[in-house]
Amino acid sequence: MTMLKRAALLAAALAPTAAMAQDDGLNIAFLAASSQNGFNQAVYAGIEAAAADYDNVTTEIFDGEFSAQVQFSQVEDLVAGGRFDALIVTPNDTVGIATALEQATAAGVPVAATLFPIGPDLSQMEPQVDGLVTTVAADPSIGARIQAEAVVEHCEGIDPCRVVVLIGQLVFPFDNLRYETFQEVLGEHDNIEIVATGEGNYSPEESLVAMQDILQANPDIDVVLSNADQHLMGAEIALDDAGIDVSDVYLIGGGLNQITVDGIRQGLYDASLAQFPASMGAAALDAVVGHLRGEEVPTWINERELREDVPAIVDREWLEAHPDFEAEWQG
Amino acid sequence: MTDTPNQSATGSRIDTGRVLDFAREYGVLIIIGMLLVGLSFASDSFFTARNLLNILNQSAPLAIIACALTLVIIGGGFDLSTGAIFGVASVTAGWLAVNFDPYLAILAGPALGFLLGAINGAIITGFGVHSFLVTLATGLVYRGLAILITDGSLIPVRIEEFSWLGRERIGLVNVAVIVLLLFGAAMTLLLNGTTFGRKVFAVGGNEEAALLSGIRTNRIKILTFCLTGMAAGLAGVISVSRISMAEPQAGTGMELEAIASVILGGTSILGGSGAVWRSVSGVLLIALIGNGFNILNVNPFFKDLTTGVIIVIAVALAASARRR
Question: Which stretch is the leader sequence (chain A) (predicted)?
Fold first, then answer.
């Protein structure tokens, strides 16, 4: 037997052992947009909980500091370091990070994306990067459409129905897409008028300032529509300070954190678009582990279908019927 | 008789020169005045007592920081940790209000800020490192503390005994505005009416000369950082009590806004000259632009551009005044 044949036989004999050894020590990195953010922490909590269901999967979190450059470097460092079997990313820059992730997949490190797809088209959930295992997300315009339709329903019989939009930051492509969707859906109804738009920058404080200013010029409003629950917290204070009965204004946000759930139950807010970061993280981890074990995994896991026990828009009526419901993140 | 035209021309030049001097000296006030007039014509909702008080109320936390930061900058220092002190004081006060006592929480914010400012001052003077580098580093440490306290989450603080500071009014005027006026007056008195204030100018103007004339420059520097830390802590408490929510990321970028406001008002970035009222004017200028954009419902894309252009004009005016 030649040396080559002996080596081939040895490799064949050891192959299952090698695969098991690899499976014994799966190490998954979560590249958070920011590890100091409640939403991202909940995604990681879901990843950790899912990893605990396996005997051999460990995880680590990396802080992207809400910086595209930091996250890009992290991908490069982790791939070069070779410690991780897969990456799960909540991207800060959905387009810019693509190059680094292509390097990762080319180096044999599979990648899953959460919250947003990776690539230039935010509405395209199928992989836009070669080798991307799965995307656990939903087209931001779908959630925005659901929110706007809830506003349309509320505005039935109110003419004019004056709406204030509080959006995160219009320089973010996903917020721009949401805003355009709000305009498109509400613009189809003659009784609805967007009287003002403010940027809340995902901060209760900045939302408060924007809403106070808007109320100076538009003291009579019927709806506050926002993509983020944090904005409602500032808006509610501004309405109250202006002597407006908050219960007369329909306040709808997005994200469904526990503070908002409590606020809806207390009657401070009306509704929120449900999001489930922990479920998102768990789904991403299961997908990458399945992929590493050679299983077929879906290339897109629809974020909106992760918790079918909860409606897309959570309002007071639903919460009253489900008193034990708890959000997946604090706020 | 032939002198008359020449005299007239000279008089005209003097008048033009005086106008230019005035414009350079009080550029920020002139721009504020122009904005007030322009926005009053553009919107009926602008020039109302309610809106003007609203602007003051919104600006109170930043203005309080800027008032005290003026002393640091006049003294030749720089403080990049005010945003982080604001954040850590916010979450500490919020946590204390929820878990212990709301009144203790209100006092704890400024006290903690004073302590953190003292640490800044002690490191700067003790190790002889430039305040820019020290406060850049301590800012990271303080922000880390804020995140550790909250685990990165928000803390709801809906407690009336706490929220009065940010939300209650005396007559038409918010308590926060009254706090700002009192704090601004105290800082002005301290800077312009005490030996401590004169020493701050001396240290910022020429530290070596100040040292040789017997001034304990390190002590003066530490005190200016203590005051700025205290102001950042107070501002943080006001902010939390206003929105009934403590957030660990609160105050992010505020240090640069505060520095920009101080410089925008005309205080020299090199130290040795400046005034508290100038810094408050700088804060109000930036606040007016934001308020105008929200009231007029102008596309937010243009806000940064306009703010930048106005800041460049104001800073150029202030710089030309210093070159004379």
Answer: 1-21
